[in-house]
């Protein structure tokens, strides 16, 4: 049985049964951004329970590729902060992405973000 990718996007606050805000979605956004960059499923060698334990108790996060642009590394690591209050709001994430748009489009290998580089068409 194939593992659902959403199992490995479980946010810290939800795992710990703490009250949560929109910042849980910021954490998930960082994971989705990592998935887009790598084309991989986070924590794919772990069960959902193992991944949750590693994230909460050991501070484990997905490994960021060495060739990742610093701006994207910064966004992901800020989104994954264990303290939800430190995670950036989406308005700030959008501004960071807008400021870095040219760098992202010029430096990301075309195989990455392929769906975003090419205009979408209706078939």
Automatic annotation (TrEMBL):
GO terms for cellular component: cytoplasm. Residues 1-104 form the Protein kinase domain. One of its GO terms (biological process) is signal transduction. It holds the Pfam family PK_Tyr_Ser-Thr. InterPro entries: Kinase-like_dom_sf (IPR011009), Prot_kinase_dom (IPR000719), Ser-Thr/Tyr_kinase_cat_dom (IPR001245), Ser_Thr_protein_kinase (IPR050167). Gene3D superfamilies: Transferase(Phosphotransferase) domain 1. This is Protein kinase domain-containing protein.
